[in-house]
Design a protein that fits this description.
alpha+beta; four-stranded mixed beta sheet; 21% strand
């Protein structure tokens, strides 16, 4: 096995926090690309607020519910219907949606809470598919947060 100092493309990230081991990358910092918990809608009352005040945008197998927030940064909440049987399948869908949001953040409006409500006929199982499904709704986002 090769040693770290033998290959210049392997770099140890010095930006890790206490208790987190350094990540080896090919010249990029993974910490800067991660999705922080502050970028997620997590509390029940936050979901309730988005559901009651938000504008609904319908796609194939999902609905985006968009509501302005005061943080100036877009936040994502995910709701997967229990008719999608199996916790493993529901959690996989959530991981894929979070990854899509992390990679394609510029598709979503700044300063909005967005709940991604997944229906049982949801066909997307890759972050690229989700980005492609959200793109047609991109023009409708402008009226959900008043820009």
């Amino acid at each position: 096995m090769a040693r770290e100092n033998e290959h210049s493309c392997w770099q140890s990230s010095n930006t890790s926090t206490k208790g987190e081991r350094p990540k080896k990358t090919y010249g990029i910092t993974l910490v800067a690309q991660r999705l922080l918990k502050s970028s997620l809608v997590r509390k029940g009352w936050e979901f309730d607020e988005v559901y009651s005040k938000g504008k609904r945008l319908h796609g194939k197998g999902f609905t985006l519910i968009c509501c302005p927030n005061s943080t100036g940064e877009s936040r994502l909440g995910i709701s997967v219907h229990r008719k999608i049987r199996g916790a493993v399948k529901r959690n996989r869908i959530k991981r894929i949606i979070r990854e899509s949001f992390r990679l394609g953040r510029k598709q979503y409006p700044a300063g909005a809470d967005i709940v991604f409500a997944v229906r049982p006929d949801f066909p997307c199982l890759h972050p690229r598919d989700i980005c492609a499904a959200v793109t047609p709704l991109k023009d409708s986002f402008t009226c959900c947060h008043g820009v």
